[in-house]
Inverse folding.
């Protein structure tokens, strides 16, 4: 390989700078193309998960979402690859560990990652061709962006399109609206005052001609930035993009630039509203944000310091500011974030969740008074130390991410965008050491607070109030626009529209020819390792309790899990369980109040959290083991202190601070309500699966719709329910805190595992040695076909069944069919044809239960019709040899995922508890690799269960659900 030195040229790229960065174990090189001026950043190391990205400055001038629609559309075919859905075809059959495209406020990027070198260059060729040479057909614009849709003359005229429907779902999220209005307030007239994703009310303003012109002006190679990460040969990467895509382009063009607008110099007040369901209450549902322009994206030290300051002020439970605001009953939750590089200016945003508009002035006054007092008297040193430690832990843990390349590219891309050294952006150790020294010496953070917050008039306050009439108003305005268009059509025009709609539908149903599909480069089955390395835990004992050990490289971090058996909990306690886990990990102990506890936890750990899982056994479907997990992640140097805190929680957790518990309940419901209305697919899926197994019923009672309604009642009737809650917390503690039934797991390096085996015995022994008496909870569920309405404008549709009544009926060949269902059939019908943003499968081979989940879906009936067509579709499916190989490879990749050490340890722990052995996983891979087309068709009769034993849950838009109300036995307003 040619030696690379600064100033040398390699395949048309001049090496500007190169250096080793030890803290990311990488050699980093920055190149500039000698003709076009576009840059390449190469981060080279021994990571086999090779990552490529090409990005473009895509600067919106309005909120039509042109950059977002274009991001979708370039992936729908290019000159070299005239395939109707390039992204779908790649996704259907490959070993990629990541494949996506994303649109930001001023940038669109196209990243992927794979461990296979051949596939790496294959997809690099495809991705570069689709961005530089896309087909951009009018039909693609209409499918992915928007179009007038009317399949029959007596059908209602409507707008539809994948991005249009996606953004209707996104606009159901008031948090998104809060931040959008914040940017408009702080940076009026700038690029960032526009909605790059697209405002559904503005998307239909975009014409096809404007769409094509935007590509022409923004996707020139001179406006591109390339990233290479991992162990692929750098010379080959440079040669590849130069010879195939850049050499023929000899005319540079200016790079797209942002419009900075006129940043404000005095306070701005914005009052807006967001839709809630008609007739729903509006008290304590207002969102208020107070935001400040702090500096620029180039102020590296200032921005790093404010990341920590934001956590000190807004997010730590040890914050006096947070305590003052929450104790003043101004909101259900208070938080904030510092945005260092989302645009050319850095900004600090703090917000109230679950407030009222008349509380705004009190909030502003209390915010300023408390901040002044903190700056004048000095920040609590323990609080500062805890947040410094927590921030540094997060930086260190980044090395453990599975998609480490993507993470590093995400740091370097904003730096290059804002003309900052990407090398500085990738180095943090020295900067954090400098900040730590100054912060602990005292006065540094306080000076920054005074200068950039208290003495800075460049603030925007956004008040977002709930409006029960806004949803109907928006629907009425959309209908008026449709009616106005309809009035421009005569009889011939109406027939032409119907014909055009039908032609688009027919095109969506037309498959790409086999000849064109062959143009896409692919792997073959022979490229697959029939016996890939599979990680499994090593079972041991810790003071008599099972200890599940994963000895993995973790960069000096220990991931600890303490599993508390919930088999003894009766049904009436299960809806309190998730709340119990939250309170347990926050409330403190008899020695430490919740603020002291928060500081102690952050000083010595990277986090203390909980989760719930009901485990089925591979050898017995009727055996369910519900476990509440307590998770601790800690640097090995703090292992002893972290375990001492866990022991203290298990022996002296204190539920006497009823005021704090009241705050937690209302905070948790505020976020649960927000999630249900803006992204409720998991609630719908959990509810559907509850009808199929005991494990599903546990999940429904712990974090499904049943649990949500229980939390809603608790928050709404807190005072009369407080005694019941406190009694439930005590009962749950008494049931769970016992040695028998405890399971412990650790993912760490060998030396730390040995230390833990010595230190961890005290944790086990701290629990009472009491017998565990399992109970059989009596669960009460709603109707098997159920609709739940929210203020969303779209719907999530779930249909589920027990596909394999007998465990023996399942084999690895089904994973191939599953790949076809999710990446071909559902992708083409529910997404491409019907306009949903996505549709995916949930399946558990242990229970045999199978479900389909549509995401941000404008349809209800049509989606269920697509689901119930499966028996016939599978029975008649034609799968040629090439498609079959593609599906086998895709299924193989899903069964051998690329995971970071924490996730690998957790997956191995779960496999062990379910009785899933490496031998079973190898057998499944062998069956998968031997799949035939007849094997796939052979599963068709099983899908009759979808209609014979119908289980459906839809969650979302009341208007859309009520149009198909006959599909459901029960309708619930969430």
């Amino acid at each position: 390989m040619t030696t690379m030195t600064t100033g040398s040229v390699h395949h048309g790229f001049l090496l500007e700078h190169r250096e080793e960065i030890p803290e990311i174990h990488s050699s980093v090189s920055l190149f500039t193309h000698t003709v076009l001026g576009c840059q390449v950043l190469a981060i080279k190391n021994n990571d086999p998960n090779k990552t490529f990205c090409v990005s473009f400055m895509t600067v919106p001038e309005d909120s039509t979402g042109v950059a977002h629609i274009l991001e979708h559309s370039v992936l729908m075919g290019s000159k070299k690859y005239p395939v109707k859905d390039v992204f779908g075809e790649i996704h259907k059959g490959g070993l990629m560990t990541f494949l996506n495209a994303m649109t930001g406020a001023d940038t669109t990027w196209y990243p992927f990652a794979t461990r296979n070198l051949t596939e790496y260059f294959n997809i690099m060729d495809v991705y570069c061709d689709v961005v530089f040479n896309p087909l951009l057909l009018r039909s693609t614009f209409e499918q992915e962006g928007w179009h007038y849709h009317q399949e029959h003359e007596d059908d209602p005229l409507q707008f539809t399109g994948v991005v249009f429907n996606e953004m209707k779902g996104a606009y159901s999220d008031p948090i998104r609206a809060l931040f959008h209005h914040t940017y408009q307030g702080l940076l009026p007239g700038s690029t960032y005052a526009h909605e790059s994703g697209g405002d559904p009310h503005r998307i239909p303003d975009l014409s096809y001609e404007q769409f094509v012109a935007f590509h022409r002006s923004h996707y020139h190679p001179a406006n591109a930035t390339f990233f290479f990460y991992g162990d692929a040969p750098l010379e080959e990467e440079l040669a590849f993009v130069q010879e195939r895509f850049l050499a023929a382009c000899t005319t540079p063009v200016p790079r797209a630039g942002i419009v900075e607008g006129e940043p404000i110099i005095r306070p701005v007040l914005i009052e807006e509203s967001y839709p809630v369901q008609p007739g729903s209450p509006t008290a304590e549902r207002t969102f208020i944000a107070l935001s400040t322009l702090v500096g620029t994206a180039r102020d590296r030290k200032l921005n790093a310091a404010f990341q920590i300051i934001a956590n000190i002020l807004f997010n730590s439970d040890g914050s006096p500011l947070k305590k003052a605001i929450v104790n003043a009953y101004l909101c259900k939750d208070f938080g904030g974030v510092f945005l260092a590089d989302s645009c050319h200016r850095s900004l600090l945003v703090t917000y109230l969740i679950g407030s009222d508009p008349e509380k705004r002035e009190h909030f502003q006054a209390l915010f300023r008074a408390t901040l002044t007092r903190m700056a004048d008297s000095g920040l609590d040193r323990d609080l500062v130390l805890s947040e410094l430690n927590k921030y540094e832990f997060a930086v260190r843990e980044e090395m453990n991410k599975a998609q480490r390349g993507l993470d590093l590219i995400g740091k370097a891309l904003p730096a290059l965008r804002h003309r900052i050294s990407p090398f500085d952006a990738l180095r943090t150790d020295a900067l954090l050491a400098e900040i730590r020294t100054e912060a602990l010496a005292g006065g540094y953070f306080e000076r920054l607070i005074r200068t950039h917050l208290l003495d800075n008039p460049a603030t925007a306050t956004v008040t977002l109030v709930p409006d029960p009439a806004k949803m109907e108003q928006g629907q009425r305005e959309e209908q008026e626009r449709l009616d106005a268009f309809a009035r421009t059509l005569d009889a011939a025009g109406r027939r032409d529209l119907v014909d055009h709609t039908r032609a688009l539908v027919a095109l969506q149903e037309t498959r790409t020819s086999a000849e064109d599909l062959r143009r896409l480069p692919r792997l073959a089955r022979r490229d697959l390792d029939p016996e890939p390395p599979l990680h499994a835990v090593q079972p041991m004992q810790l003071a008599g309790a099972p200890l599940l050990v994963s000895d993995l490289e973790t960069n000096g971090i220990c991931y600890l899990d303490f599993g508390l058996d919930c088999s003894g909990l009766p049904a009436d306690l299960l809806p309190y369980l998730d709340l119990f886990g939250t309170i347990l990990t926050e409330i403190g102990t008899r020695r430490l109040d919740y603020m002291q506890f928060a500081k102690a936890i952050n000083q010595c750990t990277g986090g203390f959290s909980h989760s719930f899982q009901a485990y089925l056994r591979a050898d017995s479907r009727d055996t369910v083991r519900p476990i509440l997990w307590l998770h601790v992640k800690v640097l090995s140097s703090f292992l002893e202190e972290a375990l001492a805190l866990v022991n203290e929680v298990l022996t002296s957790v204190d539920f006497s601070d009823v005021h704090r518990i009241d705050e937690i309940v209302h905070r948790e419901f505020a976020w649960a309500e927000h999630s249900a209305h803006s992204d409720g697919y998991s609630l719908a899926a959990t509810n559907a699966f509850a009808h199929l197994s005991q494990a599903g019923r546990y999940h429904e009672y712990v974090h499904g719709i049943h649990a949500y309604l229980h939390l809603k009642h608790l928050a709404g009737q807190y005072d009369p329910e407080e005694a019941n809650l406190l009694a439930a917390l005590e009962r749950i503690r008494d049931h769970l805190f016992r040695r028998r039934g405890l399971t412990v797991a650790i993912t760490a390096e060998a030396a730390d595992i040995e230390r833990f085996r010595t230190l961890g015995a005290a944790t086990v022994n701290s629990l009472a040695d009491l017998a565990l008496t399992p109970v059989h909870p009596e669960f009460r569920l709603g109707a098997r076909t159920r609709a739940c309405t929210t203020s969303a404008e779209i719907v999530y549709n779930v249909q589920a069944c027990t596909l394999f009544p007998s465990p023996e009926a399942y084999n690895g060949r089904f994973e191939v069919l599953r790949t076809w269902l999710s990446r071909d059939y559902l992708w083409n019908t529910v997404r491409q044809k019907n306009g949903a943003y996505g549709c995916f499968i949930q399946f558990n081979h242990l229970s045999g239960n199978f479900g389909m989940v549509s995401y941000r879906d404008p349809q209800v009936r049509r989606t269920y019709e697509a689901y119930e067509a499966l028996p016939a579709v599978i029975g008649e499916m034609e799968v040629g040899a090439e498609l079959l190989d593609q599906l086998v490879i895709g299924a193989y990749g899903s069964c051998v995922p690329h995971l970071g050490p924490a996730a690998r340890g957790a997956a191995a722990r779960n496999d062990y508890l379910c009785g899933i052995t490496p031998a079973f996983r190898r057998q499944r891979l062998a069956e998968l690799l031997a799949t035939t087309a007849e094997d796939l068709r052979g599963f068709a009769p099983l899908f009759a269960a979808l209609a014979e034993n119908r289980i459906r849950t839809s969650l979302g838009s009341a208007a859309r659900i009520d149009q198909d109300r006959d599909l459901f036995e029960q309708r619930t307003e969430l």
